[in-house]
Each structure stands twice: as structure tokens, then as C-alpha cells.
Write a structure and sequence with these properties.
single chain, alpha+beta, two-stranded antiparallel ribbon, about 10% strand
């Protein structure tokens, strides 16, 4: 681990805190990605749990996009038609 090389640094506690917070953020992002793939691959209203397209590698979590059967639309979100918003008649 990179951080263990710098235990003798006066800034080690700060480095350790940054490392910890960064790891927490990566975990949150990984969970969001996994849920997004689950929504994409599951039935409407019933997301797939533990989608096989999300794998753990030596470098961290990876999505195998080629294996997505129903990938998300590639249009930027601001260009999406708001079909999910109900409008009053």
C-alpha cells in the first residue's frame, strides 16, 4: 500500500484521513454504479441484485459494458425527453 511508505511523515495523519475519505467515496460510487447496472438489467421496478456485469478486478470495480443487455441511453441527461415526469392534463 502506497500510504504505508510514509508512516514517518509528519503529515501521515492527514494523508491517512484523505486516504480513508477517498476510499469511502469510491465505495459510494461503486454502489451507485452497481445499482444503475441492476436497474438497467432488471425488470421494471425490480432491479437485478449483484449484476454479473459488475466485476472486481485488481484495480477495483469494473463494468463490462459489452455484456449489458439493455444499456442506458448515451444521450446526455439534459437532452432526455422527460417521459418519467408526469404532466397535468
Amino acid at each position: 500500500m502506497f500510504l504505508t511508505k510514509f508512516r514517518d511523515s509528519i503529515n501521515f495523519p492527514e494523508l491517512q484521513q484523505i486516504h480513508s475519505v477517498t476510499n469511502d467515496l469510491i465505495i459510494i460510487i461503486n454502489n451507485i454504479e452497481t445499482r444503475m447496472v441492476g436497474v438497467s438489467e432488471g425488470d421494471p421496478g425490480n432491479p437485478l441484485e449483484n449484476p454479473p456485469q459488475v466485476i472486481q478486478t485488481e484495480m477495483g470495480q469494473t463494468i463490462v459494458y459489452e455484456e449489458l443487455s439493455r444499456p442506458f441511453h448515451q444521450t446526455p441527461v439534459e437532452d432526455f425527453p422527460p417521459t418519467w415526469i408526469s404532466t397535468p392534463n
